[in-house]
């Protein structure tokens, strides 16, 4: 059961990161950024969400062990 929970949580984090990246890219385009600049902002937002999830997981793991 723990493997299923880990896989579902990982999938949820990836979906949320993709949504954050898509929103950042769309907002950048609405703001008038070029396509490369919007893609850079989207990639930065995606990486930030993945990094935040990794740091949170590491912190919680160290607390519970």
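^ Assign residues to that structure.
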């Amino acid at each position: 059961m723990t493997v299923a929970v880990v896989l579902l949580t990982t999938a949820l984090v990836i979906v949320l990161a993709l949504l954050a990246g898509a929103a950042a890219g769309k907002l950048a385009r609405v703001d008038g950024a070029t396509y490369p600049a919007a893609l850079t902002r989207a990639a930065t937002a995606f990486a930030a969400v993945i990094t935040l999830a990794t740091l949170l997981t590491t912190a919680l793991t160290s607390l519970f062990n």
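DSSP finds two helices and no strands in the chain.
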